[in-house]
C-alpha cells in the first residue's frame, strides 16, 4: 500500500526534557489512525513534528498545498466571519482565489455551492450566516474541522477535535470525519476513548514521548501495559 505519511526517529527536546523520543510512525493512504496517551506524553509535540517526506522546510501554507492539513487544540478561527465566509475562504484558497476579497469570492457560485455542502456535512447550515464569535464552542470546533476539510486534504491531522465539545455534539464530529473519502488519511489525537475506539482502525499509544505499543483497537484494549498507564480497567470493544 502507498504510504501517505511517515516519520523516522523523530526527536524533540526542550532543555533537559525529551518530549519526543525517537518516534517512528507510518500511515498508509486512507488510514484511520489514532494517537493516544496520558497528559504530557508528547502527543501534540509529535503532531507538530509530522513534516515527513521532506516538507520539513516548507511553510505551513506550502504544506497545505501539498495536502497536509491540521486542526489545533485551540480554535484558530476569525471571530468576525460567518461559517459560510470561513469555509468559503478555505475553498477559495485551495482554488487559488485567496487574493480576491470575500465580496468577489462570494459571488462565485462554485465556491458557495461547495462551501454549503461542507457546512451541511457538519450540520452548520442553520448558523452559516451568523458571526463565528456568537456560536457555541462546540459549533466552533465543528467549523474548524469543516474549514480543514474544505482544503481537500490528503492527510488530515486532528488535535483533540472533541475538546470542549458537548457530549451531544461529538457524534457530529465523528460522522463528519467518517464521511471523508477513503483516500484521505486521518491521524487523530483524542482523549475521548469512546470516540477513539469507534473511529480508529489502528491506534498508537505514546508514553513519555515514545511509542509504547501500536495495534488494532481490540489489541490495544487487551494490552495490560496500556490499561496500566492509560485506560485503567475500562473495557472497549
Description:
With 237 residues, this protein is α/β, with parallel strands linked by helices. It contains ten helices and eight strands. The chain has helices at 43-48, 60-65, 83-94, 102-105, 109-121, 137-150, 167-178, 193-199, 217-222, 224-231, and strands at residues 3-14, 17-28, 32-36, 68-70, 155-159, 185-189, 202-207, 210-215. The strands form two sheets. The protein has a six-stranded mixed beta sheet. Strands 1-2 form a two-stranded antiparallel ribbon. A hairpin with a 2-residue loop joins strand 1 (3-14) and strand 2 (17-28). Helix 3 (83-94) packs across helix 5, helix 5 crosses helix 6 (137-150) and helix 6 runs parallel beside helix 7 (167-178).
Structure described in brief:
The protein is α/β, with parallel strands linked by helices and 237 residues long. 37% of the residues lie in helices and 23% in strands. It has a six-stranded mixed β-sheet.
